[in-house]
Amino acid sequence: MENKAEKDLTEYVPYSKEARSFMSPTKYTVFIRTFIPWQLIKFAYYNLKMLMVLSKGHGRFMDD
Amino acid sequence: MARIVVLGTGFAGNTAALNLKKYLGDRHEVIVVSPRKNFSYVPSLVWVGVGSMQPEKTGFDLEPVYKKHGIIFKNGAAEEIHPDSGDQYVAVKYSDGKTEHIKYDYLINATGPKLNYAATPGLGPDAGYSDSICTLPHAIKTRDNYLKAVEKMRQGKRQKFIVGTGHGTATCQGAAFEYIHNLEFDLNRRGVRNMADITWISNEPALGDFGVGGVIVKKSGNFVSGKLFAESTFLEKGIKWVERAHVRKVEEGSLDYVNIEGEEGKLDFDFAMLIPPFAGIPIAYIDKDGNDIKAQMCVPSGFMKVDADYASAAKPFEEWKNSDWPRKYNNPIYKNIFAAGIAFAPPHPISKPFKAPDGTLIAPSPPRTGMASGIIGHTVALSIIDMVKNGAEEPTHQASMTEFGAICITSMGKSMTHGSAALLTMDPVVPNYEKYKFGRNLNYTFGDIGLAGHWVKYMLHYLFIWKMKGKFMWHFIPD
């Protein structure tokens, strides 16, 4: 499969607006983002992270 | 017996109504007023807009839900609020032209926004030249126009797509960001991506600002700005971008803009999806002598004043404080009227505002949709419950956007096997530079991109529709 990320890197233009703060995913990063076994672990991790934010609580009593 | 009237059936209004009825029971009356008969799960309209979700899967009829929970539903539009004690009521107009005066002991204004397309000449799907995904009918029209463009590409005609914000003070950049990524993903899926030029335009000071001042996260041993990640997604997918821009006007096939440097530009398009600025729903506020008191009740944009410091808007960005933001969400004059969700007037933007040299304001308005709306609606309901049941004279619950966190999921392609979304948690929503070096607690502020993010968004679609329907154990699902 064509590496879309590398294709975009060939369009990197030095000193362009984009080059000033350039970041683009590598071939591995693009792959791992849809690699299901790893994403299943990430799914569990995301849910834990979300529970952490939710557990901080909101709608607190005014006395707190 | 107390009567609580809730205006609106979005996240804030529906959350408030369900909680009020659950905890007040049959002794007290909860009335919901809305011109809409359906609940629309707005976060999924992005998918409707590219044809990857059927419209009927994004909403449901509210009447049976309210009937089941003992909530009285009035399918009409609130036109006037008469807030003076002894004669406080909402004047509601129905589609057959009849009106009703509904008295209340407590009122929650959770009407959501008026989509202010008129703020930019030529903006909008009804009287203008651009599309929108802010409502279900508009998202369906957007989908149809998008599919026409796809057909043209299949016939060999290159198409130009523009997605972003249609005014210097528009909000919901996140929704537009989702749409442009879903559009790019869908064009790939349909095999016509190579025939499309895609450009983003927004009023953000930088990509990834989203109207919340951007975000710093810990990543690979560094503190990294979300700007880099937002830009990287565009670089990866060949999407060009224009930032810090106010769209002056939209014409058929083109738009004119100006940026904070004063540079003027014109972008041609075959398809444009532009989010409009928001304003308050036009409701009149009338005192007992028949005087129009809207100026005392609302800010100029029409959103209702609550316990925020509105004088802080005149101060420079560097002097804004966390104490500017509301905590209890009741009106300072009429303390039994609350505003929840988008209906409340924020004290000022979250992001630093800028102006073009000619004075044009280019400042994203603060987002307070979705999770924030649900939290505020829930908090207001809890306060009213205490006021009714326990005689509290002041609201007993608080939820300042400078203290509570939020979870944002930005879809970047709908597919259970190769879709993607950016998941972002931020705590608090409004950066608190008095407490945190980078404005937020980095133990609770996190960002990542991947297929699992899409699974989360898909899960929340069904979870929140279940919750908003008030189904079994709905109240265990967090806001």
Can you walk me through this structure?
The complex is a heterodimer of chains A (64) and B (479). Chain A is mostly helical and 64 residues long. Chain A has one domain (4-55). Helices cover 50% and strands 3% of the residues of chain A. Chain A has 3 helices and 1 strand, in the order αααβ. Chain A is flat, with a radius of gyration of 20 Å. Chain B is of the alpha/beta class and 479 residues long. Chain B is 24% helix and 25% strand. Chain B contains 9 helices and 28 strands. Chain B has helices at 11-24, 45-48, 63-69, 136-154, 173-189, 226-237, 294-297, 371-389, 451-468; strands at residues 3-7, 29-33, 38-40, 59-61, 72-74, 77-82, 89-93, 99-103, 106-109, 113-115, 159-165, 196-201, 216-219, 222-225, 240-242, 245-251, 254-259, 264-268, 271-275, 278-280, 284-285, 337-339, 354-355, 361-362, 397-398, 406-411, 421-426, 446-450. In chain B, the strands form 9 sheets. Chain B has a 5-stranded parallel beta sheet. In chain B, β11, α5 (173-189) and β12 (196-201) form a beta-alpha-beta unit. In chain B, α1 (11-24) packs parallel to α8 (371-389). In chain B, 58% of the residues are buried. The model of chain B has no long low-confidence stretch (mean pLDDT 96). Chains A and B meet through α1, α3 and β1 of A and α6, α8, β25, β28 and α9 of B. β1 (60-61) of chain A pairs antiparallel with β25 of chain B.
- Main β-sheet description of chain A: none
Q: What profile does the largest beta sheet of chain B have?
A: 5 strands, parallel
* Mean pLDDT rating of chain A: 78
Distance separating the two termini of chain B: 28 Å
CATH architectural group of the domain at 3-115 and 278-389 in chain B: 3-Layer(bba) Sandwich
Identify the notable features of this structure and list them briefly.
heterodimer; A: 64 residues; mainly alpha; disordered N terminus; B: 479 residues; alpha/beta; FAD/NAD(P)-binding domain; five-stranded parallel beta sheet; four-stranded mixed beta sheet; 9 helices; 28 strands; globular
